[in-house]
Design goal:
Elements: H1 18-21, H2 26-39, H3 45-58, H4 63-71, H5 78-89, H6 95-106, H7 115-126, H8 129-141, H9 148-160, H10 164-175, H11 179-191, H12 195-204, H13 210-222, H14 226-235, H15 241-253, H16 257-269, H17 276-289, H18 292-304, H19 312-324, H20 328-337, H21 343-355, H22 359-371, H23 378-391, H24 394-408, H25 414-426, H26 430-438, H27 446-459, H28 462-474, H29 480-492, H30 496-509, E1 516-521, E2 527-532
InterPro entries: E_motif, PPR_At4g14850-like_plant, PPR_rpt, TPR-like_helical_dom_sf
PPR repeats: 77-111, 178-208, 209-239, 240-274, 311-341, 342-376
Organism: Datura stramonium (Jimsonweed)
């Protein structure tokens, strides 16, 4: 256990020593922690404060490590409690903040004016109305309602989650001189979609800080009103990375990936330094638009940022970008270079390898994942089953399908069933595929029957093909391609009467076969459309 510490008079004071300023990532944090233990500093109050602050706040991704450390401190001071509340509230698991406060109450730790705002921020992020109202009551009980920090957090909570009228009353009471309160109320109206009220409040602000500008721009962005967002963006006296990120994400949400990338160029031209959020947005744009060359440039920029090793989020985004842009070898290289991985990391590369036809590597990587004690999920198994199907590994595919339930308690969904039907169909085991479909525990969809129908075309199985087509018709799927497949099955067996029956059925059901189109370039460089109707 880490030894008892002396309670400090200040619960919020934090000055970072030169040692901790050199701490750049979780790995170096662990090294400093080990050095503290060896040097006997694990009972030093100031050193422990630094350790908790770095693990909980400085590196938000290491919040789980902070909680492990905190649990070993026999008597943390109020600064440490508040630091854990703050770090948990801003982490990906804000509910941990509420859990920490519950521990505080059980141990009869008296809160100060900084305690409740952190818990209330967590409630706002989680949209926990009842818990937030309870925290409001405790703020009043302890006499912190007039505290500026607590009051502004209350305004933000009620404006976003609670009662907007209460937010207005708190604002009208004594907050009109505080720009943070103006921003909090404006953000609430914007989040609720009441942009006209938000804009009116924004325009009435006696002083506009950067937060208020960002709040209003983000409000327009979330509703896809990029012209309004751009108008404000051009008027911002001094922008920060949040301002730029809001605009980049807005263009991405509207599907305007090229504008998002141009905005990044503007950002760099203005001398603004991008952060991890910026790079995640840009990689998303490259992935969605298959801009591999731009993606490589973004990757180089990430390296040049000199932020040490890749975070899990950036690593995953890079692997996904390379895989979906067709550069699977580069995706594998990035994946293998990641020091920290999560299940999503494995899923991305496993799916990438599977869909690029690298079945052996995909299956081998899955076995590596299991050996390293990562727990696969339903997405992982989709990738593995696809790989087995493409490689014709019937026995292995059956084994992995059974493994889902037996070892990982994962119930197969329609995608897993679809992979199994595809595998059996590719292997020519049509009767077994049909029996498998009949035994499915969920209703087969059109994709399942269409997979079987396509296999019947390849293997000229008229009887099963007709049955699969009937099931598609029962599902109300009037796809001309399904009729053409059935017609082609009859044609492959020289059963021209069947071909005519299918054509008549199409006519009776009003199904129109779209003519195929191609483009040729004539001598005068004019493009002519040549349309043809493929004969069954």
């Amino acid at each position: 256990m880490i030894k008892k510490t002396i309670t400090s008079r200040s619960s919020n004071l934090h000055r970072q020593s030169s040692l901790w300023s050199r701490c750049k990532d979780l790995q170096s944090l662990k090294q400093i922690h080990a050095m503290m233990i060896i040097s006997g500093f694990n009972s030093n109050r100031i050193a422990l404060r630094e350790l908790i602050y770095a693990s909980a706040v400085t590196f938000s991704a290491s919040i789980h490590y902070a909680h492990k450390l905190f649990a070993q401190i026999t008597q943390p001071d109020l600064f440490m409690w508040n630091t854990m509340l703050r770090g948990s509230a801003q982490s990906l698991r804000p509910s941990l903040s509420v859990s920490v406060y519950t521990q505080m109450e059980k141990r009869c730790i008296r809160p100060d004016s900084y305690t409740f705002p952190f818990v209330l921020k967590a409630c706002t992020k989680l949209s926990w109305l009842v818990t937030g109202l309870t925290v409001h009551g405790k703020i009043v009980k302890h006499g912190f309602e007039s505290n500026k920090f607590a009051r502004n957090t209350l305004i933000y909570f009620h404006a976003n989650v609670g009662d907007i009228r209460i937010a207005g009353q708190l604002f009208d009471g004594s907050a009109k001189r505080d720009v943070v309160a103006w921003s909090a109320l404006t953000a609430g109206y914007a989040r609720r979609g009441e942009l006209d009220l938000a804009r009116r409040l924004f325009d009435d602000m006696p002083v506009k800080d950067l937060v208020s500008w960002n709040v209003m721009i983000t409000g327009y962005v979330k509703q896809g009103k990029m012209e309004n967002a751009r108008e404000l963006f051009d008027k911002v006296p001094k922008r920060d990375v949040v301002t730029w990120n809001a605009m980049i994400s807005g263009y991405l949400l509207c599907g305007e990936n090229e504008k998002a990338l141009k905005m990044y160029e503007e950002m760099r031209g203005a001398g603004e330094y991008p952060d991890e959020v910026t790079m995640l947005h840009l990689l998303s744009a490259c992935t969605d638009s298959a801009f591999l060359d731009v993606g490589k440039q973004i990757h180089q920029s990430i390296i040049e940022m000199g932020a040490g090793e890749l975070s899990v989020f950036l690593g995953n985004a890079l692997v996904d970008m390379y895989a979906r842009c067709g550069s699977i070898r580069k995706a594998l290289e990035v994946f293998q270079g990641m020091r920290e991985k999560d299940v999503s990391s494995w899923n991305i590369i496993i799916l990438g390898l599977a869909f690029h036809g690298h079945s052996e590597e995909c299956i081998s990587l899955f076995e590596d994942m299991r050996r390293m004690k990562y727990i696969p999920n339903e997405i992982t198994f989709v990738g593995v089953l696809v790989a087995c199907s493409h490689a014709g590994k019937v026995h292995e595919c059956r084994g992995y399908f059974s493994l889902m339930r037996a070892e990982y308690n994962i119930e197969p969904n329609i995608r897993h069933y679809g992979c199994m039907v595809d595998m059996l169909a590719r292997a020519g085991l049509l009767n077994e595929a049909f029996e498998f479909i009949k035994a499915m525990e969920i209703e087969p969809n059109a994709i399942i029957w269409r997979t079987l129908l396509g296999a019947c075309r390849v293997h000229s199985n008229v009887e099963l093909g007709r049955y699969a087509n009937e099931q598609l018709l029962k599902l109300g799927r009037e796809d001309s391609g399904d009729y053409v497949l059935l017609s082609n099955i009859y044609a492959s067996r020289d059963e021209w009467g069947g071909v005519e029956r299918v054509r008549k059925l199409m006519d009776d059901n009003g199904v129109w076969k779209e003519p195929g189109c191609t483009l040729i370039e004539a001598d005068d460089y004019a493009l002519r459309n040549i349309c043809f109707d493929s004969k069954a």
